[in-house]
Amino acid sequence: MKFKPSLLALSVCALVSVSAPVFAHNMATAAEITAKQDSLTQLIEQALRYDASRKQFYAQSQAMRETGIASATLMDPKLKFGFGGLPVDSFQFDQDPMTNISLGLMQQFERGETLSLQQKKANQQADGMSLQVDARERDIANGVTQLWLELGYQQQAEDILKENQRLMRELANFIQTNYSIGKNEAQDLLNAQLQVSKLDEKLQANAQMQRRINSQLSEWLGTEWLAQNGQLLTLNQLDWQHLNQRIERSDGTEHYALLVDHPMVKMTDAAISASETQVEIAEQAYAPQFGVEVMYAYRQANGMNGQPASDLVSAYLTMDLPLFTDNRQDKNHAAAQYQVGVAKSQKDLLLAQMNAKVNALLVDRENLEQRLERYRNTLIEQAKARTQAVERGYQNNTAQFSDVITAASDELTLALEKQRLITDLNLVNSNLAALLGGFDYRVETPDIAQPTTRNAHQ
């Protein structure tokens, strides 16, 4: 049949084009990845600057520090004003020398070093809250990176699908021409048109996913960014040199030396320190509490000698005696010690969970690298060899046109699967970077509104 050589040539072009974008992409990674990675870093830093959660955690930490200063301040003194010894028969202030008008001032002091310890605890809690800002930054960097990689995969898939769609349409038009002159069968034409329709459907689904990912990015970048930046140009792979250097410092399956730098682990350290300070505060309850009171009494009546009665000054020192400590001080002290154990157990549990996650991700990474190597060295080559065999069989009338389409579809599927593996490998690296500190970004302290003092409103 005369149409077969031309049809075969088009099929060869279509099949070769399936792998061409992948090959070209791999050759361009050295320069392209560096440029795209800088773009991703800028995107992460922009997301961090406008993230409301970072501002929330930072404001909460500042509120805790201010509360600590307030809690470390003595109670306001109490003013006492009144009268005493007023006779009820006349209610005259100058009748009885015992009658006086009193003005007093009272001040109570906290036990031991309770005030300074309360401020110390508040600062430790504030440090723990400020670490949530760092933890949030890692979450955002990981979230943005993962969406960026997914978008990169969709764009790689779009390039492959569009090239195959273009060639499949040329093939369908060629078959249409041969069918109109009776040199082709209807089933070949229908099969080619079906493949074009399938590619149309895949491209529409691809476009939908790209728009969805851009919409998800607007969670951190805002709706204005979404309106102004309709399409990001991304990749599905990054340079993880910094992460690899950190992983090399790990000891086998124990990664605690790296995990102790994670903000969540540092937060448990802050919680342990605050619990230990609470034990010290509980120990202050065994110390007595002091208070002082000074009063001045003004008298209008005359004394028994007929002379004006002298005014009076009184001064008192108060002190409570913590003698019965079994059900209060002892129990509060024991409860504070239990809380230290709780905080330490939480740290141990968190480290064990995070270490297990790192090991699981490393297993995924190793397997993905092995599978990707198999695609590069075996599967893709086997698919090409099979395509060539089908082409020869079709040329020799031992294979059907549907076999050619099947071979082309299989090679297309393998090309997409390879890109999927590249993406999954980078997603795993992104999760590892979130745990081990493999991201490289810079961001300033969140900018929050400063409080105004009461005097500023007067």
UniProtKB/TrEMBL annotation:
Signal peptide range equals 1-24
What PANTHER family is this protein classified in? OUTER MEMBRANE CATION EFFLUX PROTEIN, OUTER MEMBRANE EFFLUX PROTEIN
Q: Which SUPFAM superfamilies match?
A: Outer membrane efflux proteins (OEP)
| Protein name in the entry | TolC family protein
The entry sums up its family as follows: Belongs to the outer membrane factor (OMF) (TC 1.B.17) family.
The alphabetical list of record keywords is: Coiled coil, Signal
Q: What Pfam families is this protein classified in?
A: OEP
Coiled coil where? Answer: 157-219, 351-385
| InterPro entries documented for this protein | MdtP/NodT-like (IPR010131), OMP_efflux (IPR003423)
